[in-house]
Amino acid sequence: MPATSPAVAAARLRAQLLSHPVAEPEQVVERLLAVQAQDGRAFRLAVRSRTHGCTARDVDAALTERRSLVVSWLCRGTLHLVRAEDYPWLHALTAPRIVPGNARRLMQLGVDPAATDRGVAVVVEALADGPRTRDELRGALDAEGVPTAGQALVHLLVAASLREHVVRGPVRDGDHCFVDARRWLGAVDPPDREAPGGAGEALPRRARPGGCGRPCGVRRDHAHRGAPRIRADPARDQAVRGRVARAGG
């Protein structure tokens, strides 16, 4: 079946919940796995467009009241909206790949490793008292003499996310606050990859057309400095294409 056929297009719309919307924000994020969240309005719209009548307030309730969704630097190193229960294994899988680039960028911005260590510690200490806005964290860092000019602040927050599980959780007076995921969500240890139902089984189940807009089988390869490497799995991709074709037929 040609990749541009109406049946394949219909299957893609269905897989992405664009033609078959669901009831809750959490159902959308479960299907998509990780929703691009660089822009707060855009990720709320991405969820709303796949639901029956949900509003931005419903998305904020999932972030703030139910604590079922969080935003963090995952996948390719940009902000993504994910389910709280998926955050631990996604962080374990993708964070190690982001660390070198983050450290390199901080050095380019004049933030050396010692200043980075100090900055991460300041952020963690500030979050021990509860959610904090970006401006509040900037104030805490400035008070300790940690550089925050230009892009330094955001890359320090990325470092805190990678090292200490700092995520964006609740919305307070329109500001999306940062929290320590270990306090906000509880345990953030990834599931045992070897145990039944653990991360080793979770990854193939999530390699589906709705997850990233294309067949995306993944496997882990520890050959590169011990960090997880994500590569295409041709056999699984072919199986996914077959499921898409059958779904549209």
Helix content: 40-55%
Sheet-strand content, in percent, reads 15-25%
Oligomer: single chain
State the major sheet. Answer: 3 strands, antiparallel
Cα separation of the termini? 9 Å
Distinct helical segment count: 12
Structural class comes to alpha+beta
pLDDT < 50 stretches:
204-233, 243-249
Strand adjacency order, main sheet: 1-3-2
The number of E-state strands comes to 7
Radius of gyration: 19 Å
Query: Secondary-structure element order, as H and E?
Result: HHEHHEEHHHHEEHHHEEH
Question: What does the average pLDDT come to?
Answer: 83
Number of domains: 1
The coarse overall form would be globular
Task: Compile the SSE list and pairings.
Elements lengths: L5 H10 L9 H8 L2 E2 L3 H9 L7 H9 L4 E6 L3 E6 L3 H22 L4 H15 L6 H10 L8 H13 L1 E7 L2 E6 H4 L14 H8 L2 H4 L5 E7 L2 E6 L1 H15 L1
Antiparallel strand pairs: 1-3, 2-3, 4-5, 6-7
Structure in words:
The protein is an alpha+beta fold and 249 residues long. It has one domain (6-248). Helices cover 51% and strands 16% of the residues. It contains twelve helices and seven strands. It has helices spanning 6-15, 25-32, 40-48, 56-64, 87-108, 113-127, 134-143, 152-164, 181-184, 199-206, 209-212, 234-248; strands at 35-36, 69-74, 78-83, 166-172, 175-180, 218-224, 227-232. The protein has a three-stranded antiparallel beta sheet. A two-stranded antiparallel ribbon has the order 4-5. The chain has a two-stranded antiparallel ribbon with strand order 6-7. β6 (218-224) and β7 (227-232) form a beta hairpin. α5 packs antiparallel against α8 (152-164) and α6 crosses α8.
